[in-house]
Amino acid sequence: MKSPRGSLARLLCLGLALMLGVTAFLTSAAEAQQPERRRNLLDMLFGSRQPVYVPPQDAQRPREGKTRKKTNGSVTTIKTRQPSTRAAAAPPPPPPKLDNAKKVLVVGDFVAAALADGLETAFEDAPGVQVQTRANGSSGLVRDDFYDWPAQLPALVEEIKPSVIVIQIGANDRQQLVTATGRLDFRTDEWFTAYGERVANLATLAAASQVPVVWVGLPAFRPQNMTADALRLNTIYRSSIEKVNGEFVDVWEGFVDQEGRFIVTGSDINGQPVRLRGNDGIGFTGPGKRKLAFYVEKSVRRYLGDMTSPDLVRLDASNLPDLVSLPPSENRGITTTPPIDLFDPELDGADELLGGTLPPSSSFPTPRDQLVQNGRMPDPPVGRVDYVKRPAEPATSTAAPPATATP
């Protein structure tokens, strides 16, 4: 008969062994799923091997430069620009200006300053053209007490000696005008009459310098009343400069849309959409300045001619071409002769070509001498197209035939 205590002890041992087996199985499974874990009470009592972390092999690196974004059930791929490890090559510096470069004088207000920046970009590769900017951003023709352009322009022309004068002014003139008779309000007939006289005075002074004058009209602006006033002022500028045989350049179409409304973003000189105007709708961006100058540089190039070519170079002792490229040992015995005109040697101070002698005129009379002396031109050479003389026929014999012997 078995003892109940022995059966209970065997059951306890079996249960403990079963619990240890389950614990060891769970521990090994957890170690396989995660590389590291905290030690529990069973590990401290019965001990456990320390797991070793094995890094994954052949892990695929994520692609750089693309991010997938899911919005409203659709997946959108957003390309991000990665920083370039290769340093961008610096553009070559523009060529230096020539000492005899023709100068373009630009005068006016802040719009003229933007125009001058665009012209400098347009002619930066032309060593024969130099842009001189003498713009005053807050100036105009109304406040002559602030800056008197009719008094300053002749002095600037005398100082710079330009080949072309470019004028763009009037953006600051939308204000009251003070004359000897009193103050004139803007947009009145009296104001436009007095203002027209000042414009004509400045155009006459510019034309008196005997230099081509280009007057550039005002562009459109964001304020509608400012745009309407610019249209009215452009008519005054055009009529005044054409009376003194100057040229008026209209830039209006470059800064409005097809319906004539002001635009901030438009096409540049290459037809690409860019931002042309500043946030205030009055100033110009870099592409806007270049487009403003695009209308003017056509006239400037026409007046300056070949000096606008980028192929002009400065010849001095540093860049003269090597006229004799042979080594010194092979230059011995070379005889150099000055060039002689093949059609008229006497222009070079000589009477004959190199290596030839003139025959005496008595031995070889010219066709003119034969015509004067003999009254007839010499016969053309045989075989030439104008030789029409028939060849001589052979002479026939008239002698009696020899007598024959009779048998």
From TrEMBL:
Residues 393-407 have a biased composition (Low complexity). Residues 1-29 form the signal peptide. The keyword Oxidoreductase does not apply. This is DUF459 domain-containing protein. It comes from Rhizobium rosettiformans. GO terms for molecular function: hydrolase activity, acting on ester bonds. Keywords: Signal. SUPFAM superfamilies: SGNH hydrolase (SSF52266). Residues 52-98, 324-407 are annotated as: Disordered. Residues 72-85 have a biased composition (Polar residues). The keyword Signal applies.
